[in-house]
Amino acid sequence: MSIVGVIQIAVTLLLVFATAAPLGGYVFRVMEGERTLLSAIGRPVERAFYRLAGVEEGREQSWVAYAMSMLAFGVAGFLSLYVLQRLQNVLPLNPQGFDGVAPDLAFNTSLSFITNTNWQNYSGETTMSHLTQMLGLTVHNFLSAATGLATAFALIRAFSRAESKTLGNFWVDMTRATLYLLLPMAAPVSLALVALGVPQTLQGALDASTLEGAKQIISIGPVASQEAIKQLGTNGGGFFNANSAHPFENPSAWSNILEIWALLVIPFATVFAFGRAVLDQRQGRAIAIAMSIVLAAGVFAAYWAEAAGNPLLTEIGVDPAPGNMEGKEMRFGVAMTALFAAATTGTSTGAVNAMHDSFTPIGGLVPLFNMLLGCISPGGVGAGLYGSLILVVIAVFVAGLMVGRTPEYLGKKIEAREMKLAMLAILVYPLTVLGFSAASLMLKTGLDSLGNAGPHGLSEIIYAFASTTANNGSAFAGLNGNTQWFNATLGVAMFLGRFAYVVPVLALAGSFAGKKKISASSGTFPTHGLLFVGLLLGVIVVLYLLQYFPALALGPVVEHFLMQAGKTF
């Protein structure tokens, strides 16, 4: 670890925090329908969308109607994207002449992009036509992120309102998130990426001559536009198989900083918007501080592990001075690779600028554990906030048990119904990750896809299901996911991680919205100070270590001790 590396990490995070707070105020105004600088242009377009869709802008929905609208939109998105992939060979804008996507892969990819996961069991530059990339994948990068933000604001309104039967209107929330936030931010980021060297063209490929005189086909296409929204919308994926490690997706140290900023800024801004909505900025800051501590801990744990190098490589003559550079890009270095890895898995982005499979065991444990947490530091667009608020409810309930009084948060009592719904949401992740991982380890079809045996192979399978269930989409590599078994099970994991989690969240929002607000008293546990931040962090560590410690102990922890002993499995 070096001072220069620490400064690089600190400056990038300071840029995020400096812009997230004012952006949070803008997000709040947009989602509450207040006038903004873009209203003069956006309002006529917004009203036109409502008229075409038959949506009454002022008509709010109960939590059931809100959830049904979200699910119906997800089904429509799945079917349209599935058909587009299957028929891309007969549709225009296919200069590469790609065939239609296989049914099981199209199933997996469709669920991946409607759930904000962007898990890719294919190489984008050799599988998807330009039309599929733009009309299918890039469009859902906007819409899936907007769906997450809409859900977050439904829960926010539950805490800011009293004795209300409604949570807003899903169609209105999604439209505003897309029209006033995601599109206006994606356009300048796309142009900035183009200026930094990212391609943006409808050309299919270039024929190039190498320095040795050989011929090479270089894939290009509409890369910058997809790159911008994949980061801003915490989607991940990528036009190229190598993702943000590819020089056409992430050409330089400057583009790397821009991409890290883009994937972190809206999730943190949403937390500050929460503080504005509940009329207490301290509440948003407390959650942001907890998120920042988890993020920083992951960054420096990964940086320390990778900077220390790999003893196994040192034994065969590899210079340990630059750290463990296996699978990393020299143009980014260990520090900014560690920050990217922690940020992309602390959010639900899943883009990678290095191969996580090549990290040291402890370095690889960081992105794995971030996803097992549910990507809450700071999480996906909207999803990070509502995931964190579920943990806040549990933390406040624990505090209430300790002091012997009915717990409450922001004036809303937390009773048996709320705790049942919170735990129902929390249990979706371990049941899905551990259940599917166990099945894959017991079946030959699952084991045949492994690139490594022993602890590392276990980590590959757990990582895959953690990534898809948390709607992250990054891959540990070494695992062939493009099989019928993994296309099906990983697809189901994505669906459960998104919708089986969100429905209890919306039910919880409906329960809180209908409650009266009670005034704070001398016995009310404060939820805006460092004591609460410490309690929240303690709940996070204890809750998730209890669920996953055996699996982690048999995977990266065992592999770490083997590496230190100079052995492999």
3D structure, described in words:
With 569 residues, the chain is an all-alpha fold. It has a domain at 406-564. The chain contains 19 helices and four strands. It has helices at 3-31, 39-53, 63-86, 103-114, 124-127, 130-160, 170-195, 223-232, 253-277, 281-307, 311-315, 333-346, 361-372, 383-403, 416-442, 444-447, 454-469, 484-513, 530-564; strands at residues 205-209, 215-219, 408-409, 412-413. The strands form two sheets. It has a two-stranded antiparallel sheet with strand order 1-2. Strands 3-4 form a two-stranded antiparallel ribbon. A hairpin with a 2-residue loop joins strand 3 and strand 4 (412-413). The longest helix is centred in the last third of the chain and has 35 residues, at 530-564. It is globular and about 75 Å long. It starts with a helix and ends in a 5-residue tail after the last helix. The model has no long low-confidence stretch (mean pLDDT 92).
Report on the biggest sheet: 2 strands, antiparallel
**Average of the residue pLDDT scores:** 92
Helix content: 55-70%
What proportion of the residues form beta strands (DSSP E)? under 5%
Tally of DSSP β-strands: 4
Order of helices and strands: HHHHHHHEEHHHHHHHEEHHHHH
Q: Output the radius of gyration.
A: 23 Å
Content-based structural category: mainly alpha
Shape: globular
